[in-house]
Structures are given as C-alpha cells and as structure tokens.
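Before relying on records like the one below, remember that each one covers exactly one chain. Contacts with other chains, cofactors or solvent are not represented anywhere in the record.
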Amino acid sequence: MRNDVFFNISKIIERDSKSTTYKYALLRGVIDIIQNNSPFISISEGRVHFPTGLLIEKWILYYYPILESSNYIPQINGENANLAFANQLRKIIESYAQKGGFSAFYNDMKNKGIPNNLQGYFFDLSKKLKDTITKMPMKHIGRSINNDYYSIFNYDSIKSNRNSNCVDVEFLINNFGSFSIPIDYYEAFQILGSFIVGQESILFKWAEFSVNASGKCLSIEKVVNEVLKSPITERDVEESKKIYRTILTNEGKVFCVWTGKEITKYDVDHMIPFSVWKNNDLWNLLPSQATTNNQKRDKIPSVELIEKRKDLILHYWELINQHQSQRFQKEIHIALMGNNPMTKWHENAIAQLKNNCNYLITNRGYEEWKM
C-alpha cells in the first residue's frame, strides 16, 4: 500500500467539493461495508469490488432519520435546496410513519421484504439513489487529486429487474450492479476506517456542514444524534431474544455454547458483540451461561474457540433454521454466505464467522476471547 493513498484520502475529505453531504455518505458507506467485512467483497486485477446495493442500503439508513427529523437538517448548500432523492425517500418515510417508523422499515427491508403496495416507491428510491451515487460523488470524488472523473471509483451497471417476489436487501444486491476501488484504498480503509468515521472526521464534518448550512441554528450534538440513529432498538433486540428462547424451550436441554455444559438458566449472547457490530441476526444469538457471558462481555471469540465449539454453534444454527428458516437463511446469506451456495452453508458460514472474528481482532484491534 502506497503512502500517498493516506494523503489522498485526507485531501478528498478536506478539499473535494463541499456543496453536499454526498461525499461523506459515499465514504462512510464504503468504509462501513469494509468494516463489516461483507462476504460480497471480491478482489480482482488490483481492484476491490462491492455490490452497489449494499451502498444503497447504507444511504437509506443514513438519510432516513435526517429527513424524518422534526428539525430541518440541511444536506445541500443553498436556500431550499433538496437532496436528489428526497421526494422518493419521503414517500417511504410517510408510508411507515404509522407503521413503526424507521425500525419497522429496516425490518421489512432486511427480513420480511417491502410490502407489495410500497414496492414501487422503494424501487424508485433505489434507482434514484443508484443514479445519484454513481453520477455524482463516485464521478467527482478525487478531483482534488487530479482532474479525471471516476479517478477512484468505477461503476458497472446491470439491468434492474423491477419484478421480484421479495424486495429487500438481497434484491438491492442482485439488481444494482457493482462498483470498485483500487486495492490500496481498500487496505487504507481497512486500517483507518474506524478513525475516518470517528469524531475527528467524516461524521463530525457531516454535522459541521449541517450546522453551518442552518446558519448555526442547530448544534453539532443534535445533528450527530440524528445521523447516528440506529434502526435497531432495545425492543428489537428483546424480540429476537424472545424468539430464540422459545426455540430453546421447545428443544428441552440447553447447553452453554462456550463451555458445552448443560444449563437451566442462561443468557442469550451476541456472539459478535452488539456494541461492536450492530448485528441482531438470529445466527449471532447463542445461549450462554450467565457467568461466562459476563466474562466475555465485548470480547471477540478467537478462531480457535469457534473451531472448538463449532459443533454446538452449528447445532443451534440448525435449530433456528428449523423454526425460523426464512429469516435465518436470509440473515446468514447476507452476513456470512455472500455468493457462496446455501447448499454448503454450514462449512462456509463457519469459515466466514472465523474470518470476521479474526478481522475484528487483527485489523480492528478488539480484544480476543479464548475462554
């Protein structure tokens, strides 16, 4: 990895166009996908490729709470200026206003699928976001480094299939092409990503922009609170754990996934901690003895520990698959399987789980847990 890549990233953040927040959203989205170690990431001919649908999902999650907020939070310089996709996103926001709002929408997009009567709105929004992302920030980003368009990002389009049985994140992944960045930038984002989206950079630059665009009528704290709002609430976490406990009650015997001991009282533990990775998927929830769970806390299971407890992990995954097959397969496909066939999900999912945990420990510096 060349040292000038780090300087280029700094120039892009500080010097590239600041007329909208699109640049920040693009960089934040790419970094979030990389930090999540998505199984859909692939490398060829010196470039790293990502489904554009994953970026569309990120932009929806970033801008939904901003447009939903009762406070006007400017995203474009200029009086009464609107985001290119504001009208399309507001239709979705209005449609979910009486149906649970942001969290309900996220649950539909990720698990249940967008309802039939809203699929047209969602498709229009997704297409508008794809056009905005690929024709604006992807095209112009890096202009502070050289005068070429698409100097860092490349985009490969495919024809979108508007007719689909289920419109959700998988639909986005399969229907909106891919984009790529040079491998040097990918490696830099792997190392510096958590710093770039931390308080010193993208998120605070985004907030500062909105504060200044409002004539300083807003505070940075207020804007950051809206920008960082998560679609997963405590209620969502408890509902997922309730589903899991019901499955375990029907099963009868329960064993601590980390010790292998039979237990009568247990916690439902996020294998990869929720504080580290806001993942509430059923595959990431496992029964653990309370004392063991307290020892683990926010540590990341070691590759060796996962291998040691692989049979028990797979046992619980099989149970979930039997009782919640549609949700389980959709969640594990997005988080762990990627383009690997579901016919071999046991082996591939465990391998990606190890890969994710090793990445969090080795690349992002989280504490390893060996028991």
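The chain is about 55% helix and 10% strand.
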